[in-house]
Structure formats: structure tokens, C-alpha cells
Amino acid sequence: MSVEALTLIIISITFGIYIYIGWWARVKDTKSFYVAGNDIPAVANGAAIAADWMSGASFISMAGLISFLGYDGTIYLMGWTGGYVLLTLLLAPYLRKYGKYTVPDFIGDRYYSNKARAVAAVATVFISLTYVAGQMRGVGIVFSRYLQVDILTGVLIGMAIVAFFAILGGMKGITWTQVVQYSILMTAFLIMATSISFMLTGNPIPQAAFTFSNIAERLSTLQVELGLKEYLAPFQNLSPINVFCVTMALMIGTAGLPHVIIRFYTVKTVRAARWSGVWALLFIALLYTTAPALGVFAKYNLIQSLNDKPIEEVMQVDWVSKWQSTGLLQLEDKNGDGKLRFTSNENTNEVTIDRDIIVLSTPEVAKLSPFVIALVAAGGLAAALSTAAGLLLAMSSAISHDIYYRILRPDANELHRLKVARIMILVAVLVAGWFGVHPPGFVGEVVAFAFGLAAASLFPAIFLGIFDKRMNREGAICGILTGLVFTFTMIVLMRSPQILGTSEPILDSFFSINAQGIGVIGAILNFVVSLTVSRLTEAPPEEIQDLVEDIRIPKGINEQAAN
Amino acid sequence: MKQISKAQMAYWRKNIGLIRKLLIVWALVSYGAAIILAKPLAGIQFFGLPLSFWFAQQGSILIFTCLIFIYAIRMDKLDKEYDVQEERLRDK
């Protein structure tokens, strides 16, 4: 059977499973719709968080991205894992104790203000929207890469599937499909990494082969010989201050992303919230420690199989011609000596590789069976769909729950609210799909937005709401607005060529901190402004101070749930 | 305002103390070993990799996971010690 046919079959089977789960998990009340009835076991929630977290981009592009950044790839590795320490220690257990459904719920109640609620809801929608735009595109790209359908068809199929299980099953449907999606994507990724690891080093465990064999050193030496950057040396691609700030912005941003935070509301107890954090990071770490190893293996192998080889001979290799036709691999014998050569100079370099090829070509390079190639395709789709679904729920609940129900129509009844929630998620799917088909030119760039804004607005407000009893409405609102406006303006100025269409960035950097790291400064400003303003204005009312004391201990969660 | 018991204050202080200790380790392995000390530690070999590189791409992530694990276990104990567990758990 051909790889394409097998891929189609496996993808159809996985889609069948997602649709079945959506049907099985269909819900009848808003609590099930928004937080899966607080009934998700910690392990399952951990897997769902991990699936939420690992997007189509982290599945397909991350290993490649890191292999191009070398040491400095640590910004993503540490940035996207270290945030879970902050999240689990500083936010998750208390938010779970507080209960309710969304991030703006907490901010609005804690700061006794619908203004704060509205600001938080707008931030949530904006953060999730920038993030989801790339996801839907990712679904389309995965489809087109593996099944040779056009991106539009891919996006439409993806939208239909997500809409089905998200509208019927809400958070419950999303959670259980994410559990399945995590299993698929992780299995696919591990089979791939294990095979190439065994092939190159004789050790099947990628992390161990990466640490104990000398393959990373060989790659580093090889790159130096070719005049490329030294792989193992720090700060070859980014300055130390930027490695520091970007890592920190991604960590704080991770802890402030609404679609991740709301996952902690879905478990039964405070204890389960803490343990979801443990499981989530364990599941994420499995991929994040494998990815840098896979990146090194694949890059080493690519250079070895292409460099200094006669171009005639290379063209005979199956996967070379296949990926060359997609434009991801470009070979050109510029000096006409019949051999291929990697160099650091654009004019003499004869091999150009797209970073996505690191993962995409691995199954074929490692001569894995068509079944594994099909599974990897299903894994990539699972990664893209699960992230999109989580984001869609975060975005639509900020509108249907926080803005519509809590602010505009507090008298709406249960049935009506559920209907609005379902309509909003449909609207969100359509909006995301529209962005997937017509991506704004700056889609790739705006991921900096999502993390920067989450770090500068939501994280400080939630953190201070728990740990600083004296924090009041005035302080929080001023802090959030300062963080948002500063970070937003800075990113727009630094990325103006992509966002505003200027020929040069209006601002090169902020004291040599780039757009990805600017969220750290935004967060610091938020903290400073919040603390200063809160001390100059009236203390929060007594019942709010009681609320803060109450969320600090796990006891009493049932009495609250009864309300 | 509701009265806060001494036990409740002690529980919160211990919680903060634990969080502080774990976050110090968190910062030391990531910002310390992998970024600030990246160059000096690059000279030390850790099996096949320079030590700082290992922290940057493997070690810190493994240690983060351990930190959360320790937190969850220690908090389970602390909850029991101060008798502040959720009702649902105590019923069992």
C-alpha cells in the first residue's frame, strides 16, 4: 500500500475517534461546557495540558528551529517548560480553589470590578486570537505536506472536526480528545526519534544518546569545519541579554496564557491541580528533551549525507528528490564541480534546507516503515488540532461567559448561556479558519505578542491577587493597562515592517532587548505600577481580603462548589 | 473580617518558604547555569556535552520536572499536617 493511502487511512481513523469522543462527551450545562464539570483526573488533565501546549509548530518545526539556533535554542526549551514551575507553584492551586470558569472571572471578582473583568477578557481574546491564527494555518500546512491537498481544503476539514467536538462537548469533549491526541503525537515523535537515535549512535534512548555519545560534539566540529557556527557554544545567534530576557518572557508568558490556566479549573481538587502540573510538565518534558536530540541527529545526518557528495549520486536518493520538489530542500551546484558543499556564505552555499525538513524527512531518512510515516502525519495533525481547540474555548468563553453573561446579561438563564457559549465557539472557529486561509503577513511574528502580552498583563495581576492581600482594584487595573500598552507599543514598533509595512523597524530594540523578550519589561512595569498605585489608594474591602485568605488553603472547596 | 487562625498563618508561611526554596533552584539551573554561567561552564565536560549546554538543553528541563514533583509531594504532607485538605479527600 502506498504511503499516501496509509496516511489517509490512519488520519481518517484518528478523526473518527475525535468525532466519537465529541459525541460521547456532549454536555448539557455550562459547568460541563466550560470546565468539564470539574471532573477530570489529574493524569488526564496533564496529558490534555501537554497536548494543548504542543502545537503543530512545536511538532513539526521545533526540533529544526533548535538545530538552527544551536545552544541558543534553549530560549524555547527552557522558556516553554520553566513557565510550568511558575504556573504550578504560584497560580494553579489557588485558582482551582477559587473555582469558577475563566481567567477574567478571577480578575473581575478579586478586583471587585467589571472594568478589570473587561480588560482581562479583552486581553484573553487578543492573546488567544493571535495564537490561534497560526494554529489553523498549521492544520492546513500539515494536510498539504502529508496528503498533497491544498491548504484551503486542509483548513476547512480541520475547522469542521474542531467545531464538531468543541461545540458538542465543550471543555469535556476537548479534554478527552486532547488526551488521545497527546498519545498519538507523542508515540509518533518518540518512534521517530528512537529510530534515528539507534541508527546513528546505537543507543535507542534519544536523551541518553544525546548526553553520553559524542554526536553533538561531532556536529559542532563539523559545523566549524564548514565555516558554520559552533553548535555547542552559547550566544552565537542571540546576545546574552536577549537569551536571558526571551527565556524569561516565555516563562512568565507561559504562566499567564489563559488557555493553559483554564485547564487547571477542570480537576476536582486543589491537590489534583498541583498533580496536573506535575503530569503536564512530565509529558511536555518528554517531547522537549527529545526535540534537541532529534535536531542534532537529523542535522548531523543531513550534512553527512549531502556534504561533499557528488550531486548525481545525491539526486538518486528517494527522499532528496521528494523534498526538493516541495522547495524545502534546495540543491544547486554553484561552482560546477559536481559536488555539493555547505558554506556559511550565501553565494557559495550549495545546500539550502528549511527547518521543517528536520522532522518531516526523518522517517524516510531513517528508513522507517510507511506505517510510521503515516503515524507521524496523524501526530502532526493531532498537535495542531488539540492546540487550536484549547485556544478556541479560552477565546469564546471570555466573550460568552465574561463579557456576555457576567457583564451584559447577568440574568441570563442556564439554557440561554449554554446556547451563547456554543454560538461563540462556532464564531471563534470561523474567525480562526478565516485567519488560517488568509494569514496576515505577520502571523509568525505575532506569537511574540501572545507571550509578551500574557507576561505583561495577566500573570502579574493573578499573582498579586493571590500573594498580595493589599492589592486593590486601582493598582491592578493601572498595572494591567501599563503592561499591555507598553508591550503592545514596543512590539509594534520593533516589528513595524511586518505589522505596519514600514521598510525599516521604527525601533530597533529597547535597550538591546528584542521584541520576543520585551514582555519581561512589561511585566516589571506592571508589578511596579500595581504596587505603587495600590499603596496610594484605599485597601480592598474586607470580603475581598477574606476571599484571598480563603483561596490560600485547599479546605472548603466543596462548600464553594455547592454555591 | 474573618479571624485567621495561627495555624493557617503558619501553613501559609511554610508554603511560601517551600516555594521560595524551589524557585531559587529553578533560577539557579536556568538563568544561572545555562545563561549567566554559560561561558565558564562550557569548559567543563559532562559526558559528551559541555556542562552549560547540558543544563540549557536537558538538565534544566529535568530539574524543573523534579521541582514540581517535590512541591506536590511536600504540599500533600503539609495539607495533612495542618488538616486543610479538601473534604472530598478526607471523606475517603
Write up what this structure looks like.
- With 563 residues, chain A is mainly α.
- Chain A has a single domain (3-301, 367-562), classed as Sodium/glucose cotransporter, CATH 1.20.1730.
- Chain A has helices spanning 3-24, 30-35, 42-53, 56-60, 62-69, 74-98, 103-110, 114-147, 151-201, 206-212, 215-225, 240-256, 258-261, 270-306, 311-315, 318-325, 357-360, 362-365, 370-408, 414-437, 447-467, 473-494, 496-499, 518-536, 542-551, 557-562, and strands spanning 329-331, 351-353.
- In chain A, strands 1-2 form a two-stranded antiparallel ribbon.
- In chain A, helix 6 packs parallel to helix 12.
- The termini of chain A are far apart.
- The mean pLDDT of chain A is 88.
- With 92 residues, chain B is mainly α.
- Chain B has one domain.
- Chain B is 78% helix and 4% strand.
- In chain B, strands 1-2 form a two-stranded antiparallel sheet.
- The model of chain B has no long low-confidence stretch (mean pLDDT 90).
- Chains A and B meet through helix 6, helix 10, helix 11, helix 12 and helix 14 of A and helix 1, helix 2, strand 2, helix 3 and helix 4 of B.
Q: What layout of secondary structure does this protein have?
A:
The complex is a heterodimer of chains A (563) and B (92).
Chain A: H1 3-24, H2 30-35, H3 42-53, H4 56-60, H5 62-69, H6 74-98, H7 103-110, H8 114-147, H9 151-201, H10 206-212, H11 215-225, H12 240-256, H13 258-261, H14 270-306, H15 311-315, H16 318-325, E1 329-331, E2 351-353, H17 357-360, H18 362-365, H19 370-408, H20 414-437, H21 447-467, H22 473-494, H23 496-499, H24 518-536, H25 542-551, H26 557-562
Antiparallel strand pairs in A: 1-2
Chain B: H1 6-36, H2 38-42, E1 45-46, E2 49-50, H3 51-81, H4 87-91
Antiparallel strand pairs in B: 1-2
Helix pairs in contact in B: 1-3
